[in-house]
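Internal tracking record. Fields below are filled automatically when a chain is submitted to the structure queue. Please do not edit lines marked as system-generated. If the sequence contains nonstandard residues, flag them in the REMARKS field before resubmitting.
Queue: standard
Priority: normal
Entity type: single polypeptide chain
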Amino acid sequence: MKLTLTTPLLAALTSIQGVLSAPAVANSTTGAIDAIEFLTKRQSGAVRGFWECQLLNGPGHAALRADHADFNRKFGDARLTAVAGQCYVGRCRGRDFAWCNISAGTRTEYANQRNVVADTDPGNRKDCIYNNNADMYTGYYWGTSGAIDFTGADIRRC
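SYSTEM-GENERATED OUTPUT FOLLOWS
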């Protein structure tokens, strides 16, 4: 299966890949790297990050949480495992909430990472990729259905 990113999101993904492989988490208020926070959270599974978004006028944090809940209803609460190139997509109300593995091997979601992602406010933005600085080969997408071509992905609709 091959995933096709539209131009704006491809640019966003390309621009953050260097950051995704960084050894620590950037503090959103100071911009400083907090290695202790990174190591503590990494050991417990999830790593708090931030949303890299392309567009303004998004539906807000409540919509993200609703899409996360729909995703969990469709795929379950348990950690997902994906083979190379596999995506899981929840498609509801014209939006996608997705977790993808773009690596060459099989990957499993970090424990509690999906909940941490849903608890991170994207603000008034949409068409977002979640940047947690932990793994440049798996990631979450939230935004307009069709902004990413998920042909061949496991898409479950409401």
